[in-house]
Amino acid sequence: MDSGNVAWVLVSAALVLFMTPGLAFFYGGMDRTRNVLNMLMMNFYCLLVVPIVWVVVGFSLAQVPFDNGFIGNFDAAFLKDIAITGEDGGMGLATVAFLGMFAAITPALISGAVADRMKFSAWAIFVPVWSLIVYVPVFKWVYGGWLYDRGSIDFAGGTAIHVNAGIAALAAVMVLGKRRGWPQEGHPPHSMPLVMIGTGILWFGWFGFNAGSALAANGQAVQAFMNTFLAAAAAGLAWVLVEWVRDGHPTNLGAASGIVAGLVAITPAAGYVSGMSPIIIGAIAGVVCCYAVKLKTKAGYDDALDVVGVHFVGGLVGSVLIGFFANPEFFGLTDDGGLKFMEGIFYGGSAELLIEQILANLAAIVWSFALTFGIMMALKKTIGVRVDAETEATGLDLALHSETAYHGGAS
Predict the structure, then answer these.
(1) Which of 173, 178, 318, 399 has CA atoms 20 to 30 A from the CA of 5?
(2) What fold is seen in the domain 3-401?
(3) Are the beta carbons of 385 and 375 closer than 8 angstroms?
(4) 3-class secondary structure, 71
């Protein structure tokens, strides 16, 4: 046990926890005034229920034993045998806490897609069920399961978190249906200051999200920290430049969305790339995601706050680009055990890593979409997933939570 490593993991866990309120502000600012508190509650609810699910059974199924292909077992359920004595010195428990913060924010990402029309009672059931039967297995496959054994890599959650939640968001809105008046009625952000504050909190917390995933205060954590900084800046700049040329004006929403897209894209690659690679990855993500968010209108799915265009597409872009930019100098791994040691194409490798990255994401996409669709359909057939027309028109804050964010009328 190294006390410096334990301290860094604990600090990183706190930073990741802070990201969920940041996400709530980011989404809340983009939402309508009459639904702001509902969006905040959807995010904070994830912080209330997912940690309980995680320590009771989620962590055990996701990580114990580490080298089991599809799903874990119940050996560590209820935090059994996770002690702070002996050589471990608390690192095991710190890791459970750190990974629990990831588990909490992942379903929160989906909330942005279903904004303005989902029943909170349905959300309250959806979150723990989705966490257990969708998130936990995919996390297991990527970090110690069959995808890991095949040789795909995901440093901090591009496949396990962003692609997983992003494709789940698409499945959820397909069952939920479009908002009243969409796309004919515009739904601009009600508070760009809230959006920008949320973006700043997310960027700040993401240093713990990515650099903390080294699970040590070492050189790989430093590299991940720097990559996180550069990719977000490059993506935000690329998004702003695209809309400036395409639409004639740069926007704060574009800058914020681009920053988040860059953070998402660098997440799977953060500990595996170096030099100018994060800038290139971020710039590509900024451009691709800027155009991807426009697809929802043409395709006809109402992803209210661009979860699919930013998180699914951004996570997929970053994960696939590992196949080109992975620098083996930063893996901290060897040929003779565990994960296959494969270089990216631009570092002398073959297409093997690229193929594994694509296959891993396809597996996560199929699993997450199918099961999320099934969960939503089951809820739709039982308690219902959508508020009534009057509640949608007057606002979810007052109807579902008996509160209002602002006085003086809703819009």
Answers:
(1) 318
(2) Ammonium transporter fold (1.10.3430)
(3) no
(4) coil
- Can you tell me whether residue 118 is helix, strand or coil? strand
Nearest to 166 by CA among 263, 306, 24, 288: 306
324: β partners: none
Helices marked H in 118-218 — which ranges?
120-130, 136-142, 146-150, 164-176, 192-211
How many degrees, rounded to 5, is the angle at CA 85 between CA 84 and CA 90?
Answer: 30
Tallying the residues shown for the chain, one arrives at 411
* All structural domains of the chain with their residue ranges: 3-401
Exposed, middle or buried by CB within 10 Å (0-12, 13-18, 19+), for 316?
buried
Three state DSSP letters for 49-77:
HHHHHHHHHHHHHHHCCCCCCCCCCCCCH
Contact 113, 165 (CB under 8 A): no
| 238/290 Cα distance (integer angstroms) | 9
pLDDT (tens, 9 = 90+) of the chain, 411 residues, equals 688 999 999 999 999 999 999 999 999 999 999 999 999 999 999 999 999 999 999 999 999 987 778 999 999 999 998 877 667 778 999 999 999 999 999 999 999 999 999 999 999 999 999 999 999 999 999 999 999 999 999 999 999 999 999 999 999 999 999 999 898 887 899 999 999 999 999 999 999 999 999 999 999 999 999 999 999 999 999 999 999 999 999 999 999 999 999 999 999 999 999 999 999 999 999 999 999 999 999 999 999 999 999 999 999 999 999 999 999 876 655 454 444 567 899 998 899 999 999 999 999 999 999 999 999 999 999 999 999 999 999 999 999 999 999 986 555
> What count of other Cβ atoms lies within 10 Å of the Cβ of residue 337?
7
Rounded distance between C-alpha atoms, residue 320 and residue 268, angstroms:
9
Peptide bond before 183: cis, by omega within 30 degrees of 0?
yes
Residue 182, SS3? coil
397 CB neighbour count, 10 Å cutoff: 24
Q: Are 326 and 153 in contact (CB under 8 A)?
A: yes
Q: Judge contact between 1 and 89, C-beta under 8 A.
A: yes
Cβ within 8 Å of residue 127, ≥6 positions away: 45, 46, 49, 50, 107
Rounded Cα distance between 369 and 168, Å, is: 5
CA angle 307, 311, 317 (to 5 degrees): 140
Backbone dihedral angles phi then psi of residue 386, each to the nearest 5 degrees: -120, 140
pTM of the model: 0.95
